[in-house]
Amino acid sequence: MATLTQPPTAGKDASEVHPIAVVQMEFLVRFAPAEGLLAAQAQLTPVSYVLAPDCHLQGGFAFFSWFSGEHAGDFVTTLGGYHPQFQPPAHYPTVPRLGFNWQVNSEVLIKGEAYFALTPHAIMAGGSLNATFDSGDIHAWFSMGADFLMYWKPFHYTASAEVEIGASVTVHCFGTHTLTISAGAEVQIWGPPFAGNAHVHVKVLIVHVSFTVTFGDGSATPPPKIAWDEFQKTFLHDVDAAPAKVCSIAIQGGLIRTMKDDLGVPHAIVNAKELCLTTDALIPSTRLGTRETVTGDWKNLPAGTAPLCNPPAAGVPSLGIEPMGVAQAGFASQQRIRVLREGIDASADFAFVPVYKQTPRALWNPAASPTSSVGLNAERMVTAVTGFELHPAKPVVPGATQLIRDSALQYDVSPRDLITDAVNRVSYSVVPPTGPNSDGWANLKTALADPAAIERRRALLNQLGFVPARDVAIGDALSDSYVLPPSIMEASIS
To answer: Taking Cα atoms as reference points, which of 350, 385, 386 lies closest to residue 277?
Structure first.
């Protein structure tokens, strides 16, 4: 819960401070990976007011984003709810209207409401203001409201507004009679191109007059569709300038750690048994190829020959491009993946599993046409293949321990003046000593301290993931308690 008071009352006598605004909100933030949901909500409490304690504030806010599961890809952000004609799906949050209710005195009441909502296919906004005066036989009122709905790419909007002002007087003469005078108008507009109509009505006593005015072309023409260049720059992050943003690949499973070599190039160390690579593309796929072995410039191969995966049982959903008016018959896309091992095609070593996600119908509507548009309460999402999971095609074969002579496992516990370890024996070769007190041990110690040997040792330790100065110490302190297999004493140290 958070409370804002203006001006602040902290450190002051509450009886001497009269805030012009108190806003108190209750917050709830929820992250549920199992449900694939990130949600944040807030709502004003009844103690909130502005200008006067009798001017009560109300309303709420919500942001919901589904990143996996049944509703993956869907989202909604709203302040005060939705358009009156919008039927929110069951998984959308219910949010009260933002507004105020001010009983100024016993005769005057002022109320106002507002809302804003952003969904995958539209922006909604609107509000209303009402004021009434009621003093016995005299009654007056004023009301106005507007609702705005906008779609984008192609840009298209509809709006409706209304205003009315009136008064009535009750006369007690030769009976009771009520005299009413009112005037109002309702306007509906849409575009582009800009068009609409206005309905005007006037009532004076018992006379009621109304008429309608039409402007623009007077018809709700379909929104114009956009060209590929505009679609690409708007929805695909300008692929010519930054193609990496359209297609991406990540390690989803099996990552152990990431290391950098001496040139600063990162390398991923993975568990082959749990390895899972995931690709993702902003443009969903409408067809799948076969896992054929190809040569040459594979990026420019004819459709259907790039190494992908065998078509899954679930099939590939048909799609269109709604902002361009391209129907499913005219839209085809394919994500091509190739795995190379030292320059040789190794795609056959991996299994490719399509990833199905929910994508906005306002972008990939299968029923798209030059005259179509996704309605306010139409299905908001459509299933599409957005990428693939890459797994090892065959189970990882566990390693087998080789035979080891038992003599190699025997050891000598007598102290040795030896400064070495397994890493050093891999790095270089020295002539073995003939006895514990021979000059060979001194020669070995000198060899270990050789700058070239130190540099080779450091490079090897870095490749193994060790920090030499921290993890491996070669010095006199370790020279008195080495335990060595007899085979090391008898054979060359290398």
So the answer is: 350
